[in-house]
């Protein structure tokens, strides 16, 4: 009888221990970093995320969008770990609101004119965007960095009002601009040069330096991050020699 009681008792303890072990295992969660990134940075950021996961076993989840959009999301949610917008303007806005940590510079965003490969409207310069019957698509200045800088470039040349009359569409992200040009739904746009690294069916026309406005891509941690040390590790990795080499691989001009 005592032997039977001992066996029953041992069995019950084993079941309880197994149950506790299962509960503990179910509650183990893989750490995740939430990174808010400008849509035009997707290619290098995706690759950096994969390498970071292999090195630290940390999942990197991205929220891609226009820089104004992702800044708004950070402000509303008060969540996230890392912020990398398309230009320093959005970092400065976030900093004024106390949303971000120290700034680090990654690379340059260089605007260029982009037209279909056969260039049907015979675009040769910024001035040609104001010609009669030219169909222009531009980034939305309220949504993305390329939209804001496009307006400034056109205003600098006193062309904004004239080109606005030729505008057939505005896009929330820089990636959508390429679709319009590739599909020949517009004659010209202004994009970041680095977004055209593998682009086919389009032609790039450089904007002279004196007429251009080159932007800096910054990165920082988010102040409300629940993974501050890990977020800083990711930022350090992005601005490391290895991280910047990945940006360079995708056509970005890096900042030493």
Automatic annotation (TrEMBL):
Annotated positions binding molybdate: 67, 174
Pfam families for the chain: SBP_bac_11 (PF13531)
Transmembrane portions of the chain: none
InterPro entries (UniProt xref): ModA, ModA/WtpA
Keyword Metal-binding: yes
UniProt KW keywords: Metal-binding, Molybdenum, Signal
A GO molecular-function descriptor: molybdate ion binding
Gene Ontology biological process: molybdate ion transport
PANTHER family for the chain: MOLYBDATE-BINDING PERIPLASMIC PROTEIN, SULFATE-BINDING PROTEIN
UniProt record similarity statement: Belongs to the bacterial solute-binding protein ModA family.
Protein name: Molybdate ABC transporter substrate-binding protein
Organism: Crassaminicella thermophila
């Amino acid at each position: 009888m005592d032997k039977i009681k001992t066996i029953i008792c041992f069995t019950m303890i084993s079941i309880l221990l197994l149950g506790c072990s299962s509960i503990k295992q179910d509650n183990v969660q893989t750490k995740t970093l939430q990174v808010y990134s400008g849509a035009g940075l997707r290619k290098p950021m995706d690759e950096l995320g994969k390498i970071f996961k292999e090195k630290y076993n940390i999942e990197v989840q991205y929220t891609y969008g226009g820089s104004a959009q992702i800044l708004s999301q950070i402000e509303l949610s008060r969540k996230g770990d890392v912020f990398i917008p398309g230009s320093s303007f959005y970092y400065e806005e976030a900093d004024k609101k106390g949303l971000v940590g120290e700034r680090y510079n990654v690379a340059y965003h260089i605007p260029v004119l982009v037209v279909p490969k056969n260039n049907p409207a015979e675009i040769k310069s910024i001035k040609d965007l104001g010609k009669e019957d030219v169909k222009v698509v531009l980034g939305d200045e309220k949504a993305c960095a390329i939209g804001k800088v496009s307006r400034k470039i056109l205003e600098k040349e006193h062309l904004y009002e004239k080109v606005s009359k030729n505008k057939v569409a505005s896009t929330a992200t820089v990636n959508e601009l390429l679709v319009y040009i590739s599909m020949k739904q517009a004659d010209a746009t202004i994009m970041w040069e680095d977004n055209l690294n593998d682009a086919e069916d389009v032609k790039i026309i450089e904007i002279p330096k004196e007429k251009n406005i080159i932007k800096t891509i910054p990165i920082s941690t988010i102040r409300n991050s629940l993974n501050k040390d890990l977020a800083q590790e990711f930022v350090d990795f992005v601005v490391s020699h290895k991280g910047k080499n990945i940006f360079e691989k995708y056509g970005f001009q890096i900042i030493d």
